[in-house]
Design brief:
Elements: H1 24-29, H2 31-40, E1 44-46, H3 72-85, H4 93-103, H5 109-116, H6 124-135, H7 141-146, E2 148-154, H8 160-170, E3 179-185, H9 204-208, E4 213-214, H10 226-235, E5 244-247, H11 260-263, H12 265-278, E6 284-290, H13 295-307, E7 308-314, E8 325-333, H14 336-348, H15 368-394, H16 401-421, H17 443-452
Parallel strand pairs: 2-3, 2-5, 3-4, 5-6
Antiparallel strand pairs: 1-7, 6-8, 7-8
Helix pairs in contact: 2-16, 3-15, 5-16, 6-8, 12-13, 12-14
Length: 458
């Protein structure tokens, strides 16, 4: 699918933000505040591969054949984090959520974007992905050379990543006239078998771009079904290459928040397998994960380091600092041939319990040099999450006027810094996925998408 062509109006001057006025000179005179805002946008760690080339894919015969193992140092981090989280158990949930929202440094970014940039589906997910796009060079050179971009978005509802990418490409001079083909997969909000608790209520983008969505052979949109994954592979077969795959899947873990990473591990592994199956050489993967303490995460990140030239773990400023989510960004995919036997082995065990059985790799095959870096990454994000939760506890339920004033200045500065750092332009000139001037639909894609849409079950 590409964008529809039509007249393009020159973007007007972005409207003024509704943030409180902040004196830039005052901000620069407070080095602690400037440092805090800068660190907020710099929570990222990149793996460094040793020159000895010891980080190699294990023999496929060793894949999914050994029991899961724990890593004592990582489990110590998990226990430490859960001990801090346990102090929240006697707090009123609604009051705590309001409090952490008021202390969130990036809490004013969404309002600033809606005012200054006319961003659509401007949710926290939109802000996070736009930040990822502005931090990492995700769009490969092959796309630039061809003037065409092909992307696939997994667990995508309500469509914030698609909307953010649309805004990003349409407000950049370098990508504004590229052809863009995208496809998305998510739990089907119209399938009666998917309860309302499992699907996203906001279906504005899905309803207006339905042919671009693949819900699989069973029409549920469940990505953990191998049949649905293979149907998605056929659904995007018209794309000459797949440059970017994003996966933002998760589900409610309130009943066992201390085991969030383990509970979503199978979904995350399915998303990663789907990305490796679909991506072309040089492509990029953006994958949401949590804490990274379990052996399943150790194995998966090692696998990604063997399949991409660069792997980073990133906590966007617009991701609430007290939660456990991070985004793994893999760039420079080595190509399908490099991992084809291993991916084939993964697909034979593909399913909703994929991470519950044997380990992806035995611990003995993961180099010590990798494990050291993995521990360093986990320790870095652990320290920052614990610091945020501890601060929130110290400010609850009442904070002083001085503390509140400082927080408000930080929130204003963070929103201003977001707009400046990522050069968020107005979308007045863009062709959005919502309107009649939306993307073109190729007949082949329309035929395939209709077969998997809700209408096929009516």
């Amino acid at each position: 699918m590409g964008r529809a062509h039509g007249s393009r109006k020159k973007a007007g001057r972005p409207p003024q933000s509704n943030m409180a006025a902040v004196d830039p000179d005052t901000a620069t005179l407070d080095p602690d505040m400037a440092t805090e805002v800068e660190e907020l946008f710099s929570k990222r760690r990149t793996f460094t591969k040793p020159s000895s080339e010891e980080w190699l894919l294990p023999d496929p015969n060793e894949v999914l054949t050994h029991p899961q193992q724990q890593h004592p140092e990582l489990q110590s981090l998990k226990a430490s984090l859960n001990a801090v989280k346990s102090r929240l158990s006697d707090q009123d949930l609604s009051e705590w959520q309001w409090h952490t929202g008021s202390t969130n440094r990036a809490g004013k970014v969404i309002a600033a974007l809606r005012s200054a940039a006319n961003a659509e589906i401007c949710t926290q997910a939109w802000c996070k992905f736009y930040e990822i796009l502005g931090t990492f060079p995700l769009l490969p050179e092959a796309a630039a050379a061809a003037g065409a971009l092909n992307t696939v978005h997994l667990c995508e509802a309500p469509g914030a990543f698609v909307s953010a990418l649309n805004h990003y490409t349409q407000t950049s001079e370098a990508t504004r006239y590229w052809d863009w083909a995208w496809a998305a997969s998510t739990l089907n909000p119209y399938h009666e078998g998917n309860g309302g608790h499992a699907t996203v209520a906001d279906d504005r983008l899905i309803a207006n771009t339905l042919p671009w969505w693949s819900f699989g052979s069973d029409n549920t949109g469940d990505l953990t079904s191998l049949k649905n994954l293979l149907q998605l592979q056929g659904f995007v077969a018209h794309m000459p290459r797949v440059d970017l795959v994003t996966a933002d899947g998760s589900f409610d873990c309130l009943e066992a928040p201390d085991e969030q990473e383990a509970l979503v591990a199978s979904l995350v592994l399915c998303e990663a397998a789907a990305g490796l199956l679909l991506l072309s050489s040089g492509g990029a993967l953006v994958l949401k994960m949590f804490t990274l303490y379990e052996h399943s995460s150790v194995c998966l990140l090692y696998l990604l380091n063997c399949c991409f030239s660069s792997v980073s773990v990133f906590k966007p400023a617009t991701s609430k600092a007290g939660n456990s989510e991070v985004y793994v960004v893999g760039r420079g995919h080595y190509g399908k041939d490099a991992a084809r036997p291993l991916v084939a082995k993964l697909l034979r065990s593909y399913g909703p319990g994929m991470a519950d059985g044997p380990a992806l790799f035995p611990a003995a095959l993961i180099p010590a040099s990798y494990l050291r870096q993995h521990l360093e990454v986990c320790s870095y994000f652990h320290a920052r999450q614990v610091a945020t939760i501890t601060e929130n506890l110290s400010l609850f339920p009442v904070m002083s006027a001085e503390q509140r004033g400082r927080l408000e200045r930080l929130r204003d500065l963070t929103a201003q810094q977001y707009l400046l750092r990522f050069r968020v332009g107005s979308s007045l000139a863009m062709h959005t996925p919502f309107g009649p001037a939306g993307p073109r639909l190729t007949p082949r894609m329309f035929e395939r998408s209709c077969k998997s849409s809700l209408f096929s079950s009516v």
